[in-house]
Amino acid sequence: MSSVDRAGAYGFSKTIAALTLPPPALSPVRLRGPRTRSLHVAKGTDVLVAGKRYDSWYLNHDGWLVRYKVLHSGARQVLDFILPGETFGLQACVFRSSLYSVVTITPASLTVIPFDMIDMVLEQGIHLSKALLWSAICESARLGEHVIDSGRRSAYERLSHFFLELFVRLKRVGLTTGMSFQAPLTQELIADALGLTAIHVNRTLRCLRQDKLVALDEKKVTILDFEALSLLSDFENSYLGEDARALWSG
């Protein structure tokens, strides 16, 4: 490998770690690295399609995307929302074909990373290794809580937990204002994420507003009583990495 490639790989891995690990892991730096490219995609663009094979994975810099699967019946299950600073698409490179689809729900700015760059970058340091491990751990923890949502929490508890999770994730990347955040989500998307109907989501949102736990102003969500919402939905933000320091300390 040339000295130019080595320098680019080191800078690239450091940037990925800075964007996907919460502080005080690393300070963000400008993205640089051989053969990566920037991609600006419009709202409603399919970035990954289930059943297709891909040779690149992605880092989301700005915008919201949704990871989902459509069943033979036509029913859609939303698995997760991909927020700024998060990676996706690695499994679509590892498996024979992508297991899930990913579509933008707002305009988004992405970095496209060739899958065959991983070995090269891993040889140069541990920054990317930590970032990828962190991403996998967080995704696994979130999916575990989503299983609990569907299996054991009521609609009222699911929606409360959902809003708290989004708030903590967005706060980590500086996308909250006080106790408020912007959520470009339809009731249909929320319903497909929580295993509810859109009508049920609408009724539950009304209850949360009436109980003065959440305020909604079009796409703006405000948490009015974080403690009460946490208690009623058994929300513990440790699964979002708030106490996971061992990965990057030392």
How would you sum up this structure, described in words?
The protein has 250 residues and is of the alpha+beta class. The chain folds into 2 domains: 3-125, Jelly Rolls, CATH 2.60.120; 154-233, Winged helix-like DNA-binding domain superfamily/Winged helix DNA-binding domain (Arc Repressor Mutant, subunit A). The chain has 8 helices and 12 strands. It has helices at residues 3-20, 90-94, 117-122, 127-152, 155-172, 187-194, 198-210, 226-233; strands at residues 37-41, 46-48, 56-62, 65-70, 76-82, 87-88, 101-104, 108-114, 176-177, 180-182, 214-217, 220-223. The strands form 3 sheets. It has a 4-stranded antiparallel beta sheet. It has a 4-stranded antiparallel beta sheet with strand order 2-7-4-5. Strand 9 and strand 10 form a beta hairpin. Helix 1 packs parallel to helix 4, helix 5 crosses helix 7 and helix 5 (155-172) crosses helix 8 (226-233).
Helix content: 40-55%
> Strand content of the residues, in percent?
15-25%
What order do the helices and strands follow? HEEEEEEHEEHHHEEHHEEH
The stretches of 5 or more residues where confidence is low (pLDDT under 50) are 1-11, 22-32, 246-250
> Count the strands?
12
CATH topology of the largest domain: the name is Jelly Rolls
CATH architecture of the largest domain: Sandwich
- The name of the CATH superfamily of the largest domain reads Jelly Rolls
- Tell me about the biggest sheet? 4 strands, antiparallel
- Tally of helical runs: 8
Domain count: the total is 2
* Rg, alpha carbons: 19 Å
Q: CA-to-CA gap between the ends?
A: 29 Å
**Shape, per Cα inertia axes:** globular
SS content category? alpha+beta
Question: How are the strands of the largest sheet arranged?
Answer: 1-8-3-6
CATH class of the largest domain: Mainly Beta
